[in-house]
Amino acid sequence: MSGRSFSPLRYGSATVTSCDIDGKLTLVASDTTKTKSSMRTLPLVPFVKTRLLALKEEQAENRRLCGRSYIREYQEYVCINEIGDLIKPHYVTESFRKLLRANELREIRFHDLRHSCASLMLANGVPMKQIQDWLGHSDFSTTANIYAHLDYNSKISSADAMLNGLGLAVQ
Description:
Blueprint: E1 15-21, E2 24-30, H1 46-66, H2 91-102, H3 113-123, H4 128-135, H5 140-147, H6 152-165
Antiparallel strand pairs: 1-2
Helix pairs in contact: 3-4, 4-5
């Protein structure tokens, strides 16, 4: 990835989950993540940085347009709607499902994109330890057990190294 510049910006971490309390769907916001490994710093790639800055401008404009009607409780959050309210946790999952259907693609869970990401990284030579860090697995064996079967390129490299070491390499 030489020649690329990524912003090492760090933002606070917050999670929002929904739960049923006395028959009513309630959103619960927390300043902590599920596990210590969930709190990690990843590179802010340029197009994501650009989109986040544009979103920040949109939110400022929405605050201006809505005036006192704007919900200011969540203005430090990224995932808020036009009036400043939290976007419900299942919105992305539901929207993703609709996007797949609209484009006649096979239905997968939104969470399955983590597997796609890891598979692409592995296929492009990213070491398993870096994939572990990217996915936030606290234990290397979790990543290795899930993705080891996909590490075909490293098997080829190992076989080539063995053949080279035995003087049997094909020239």
